[in-house]
Design a protein that fits this description.
mainly alpha; two-stranded antiparallel sheet; two-stranded antiparallel ribbon; 4 helices; 6% strand
Length: 127
C-alpha cells in the first residue's frame, strides 16, 4: 500500500509533541477497491454451493475486509504498540468467546421434538 508521510510535530500545552502520519488518498482508494472486490467475491461465493466450506470461506472474506478497515480507516497500522496490543487482545478475546459458544452448542445433547398440546398424537391429547 502507499507510504505514510510524517507531518511536523504538533506541540501540546505540556510541551510534548508527536507526529501523526498522513495517509495518501491513493492508499485509501486502493483499500476501497479491495473492499469493493471483497464484497463482490462475498456475493459471488454466496451463490455457490461449497458444502461445509460455505461458512469458513465467508468468515475468511469478512475477516480480511475487517482487517483492512481496522488497519487503514481506523489508523491502527500507524498506531503505537499499545494500541495494536489492545486491538489484537480484543480479537483474541472475541475468538475465545466464539470458541466457547461453539463448544457449548456442539456438545449439547440433541433432543427430539418436544410434544405439545396440539400434537396429532391422541395419547397426548388425553392428558
Amino acid at each position: 500500500m502507499g507510504q505514510a508521510t510524517e507531518q511536523p510535530a504538533t506541540h501540546h500545552a505540556n510541551g510534548h509533541g508527536h507526529a501523526h502520519p498522513t495517509i495518501s488518498p491513493a492508499t485509501y482508494l486502493v483499500v476501497l477497491a479491495a473492499l469493493v472486490i471483497g464484497t463482490v467475491v462475498t456475493v459471488w461465493t454466496a451463490s455457490m454451493d461449497l458444502g461445509v466450506f460455505n461458512t469458513p470461506v465467508a468468515l475468511a472474506i469478512a475477516i480480511g475486509k475487517a482487517a483492512l478497515i481496522i488497519l487503514y480507516f481506523m489508523h491502527i497500522r500507524y498506531s503505537t504498540w499499545l494500541t495494536r496490543t489492545v486491538v489484537i487482545g480484543s480479537f483474541f478475546f472475541l475468538i475465545v468467546l466464539f470458541g466457547l459458544t461453539f463448544a457449548d452448542y456442539f456438545t449439547r445433547e440433541k433432543t427430539h421434538e418436544i410434544p405439545s398440546l396440539y400434537s396429532p398424537d391422541p395419547i397426548l391429547k388425553q392428558q
